[in-house]
Design goal:
Blueprint: H1 15-27, H2 33-52, E1 57-67, H3 73-83, E2 88-95, E3 100-110, H4 111-121, E4 126-134
Antiparallel strand pairs: 1-3, 1-4, 2-3
Bound molecules: nickel (II) ion.
Length: 137
């Protein structure tokens, strides 16, 4: 079957990730996997657009999950935050389990600086980084 403007792709991913993805998308009411993947892709594109856009003052949080066992990772993440202390308002550290830590970094300031900070925090051992950014009125 040929559908104009539609690409069929093949991707490799861990089985467990796929199971979790299917379960989550079912719970969010997506009818099928293709639709769920489209929604996830749009969400990634929106996030990426934020990181490219130039804006003024923002507030929000950077949320990261990282591997607790990666050597010197915790020190590196702390060093980066010290370097960006002009936009880091506060941070909270949660020990998730034996191997994972969650860190919530409250940010306030120039969006460009916060984008730079997010980029610097994306280092080996950081499994996920979410940016929850609000433009204050
Ligand atoms: Ni921890």
């Amino acid at each position: 079957m040929t559908e104009t403007g539609v690409s069929r792709i093949s991707i490799s991913l861990p089985l467990e990730l796929l199971k979790e993805f299917d379960e989550s998308s079912r719970q969010m009411g997506h009818e099928d996997r293709s639709k769920a993947i489209r929604a996830a892709m749009r969400s990634l594109i929106t996030e990426s657009m934020w990181t490219r856009e130039e804006r003024g003052a923002v507030v929000g949080a950077l949320i990261i999950v990282y591997n607790h066992h990666v050597k010197e990772l915790e020190e590196k993440l702390t060093d980066v935050q010290h370097h960006y202390k002009h936009v880091v308002a506060s941070s909270m550290h949660i020990h998730l389990d034996e191997g994972n830590c969650l860190e919530i970094i409250a940010v306030r300031g120039e969006s460009r600086e916060i984008r730079n900070l997010a980029q610097k925090l994306t280092i080996r051992g950081v499994k996920q980084l979410k940016q929850a950014i609000i433009t204050p009125q």
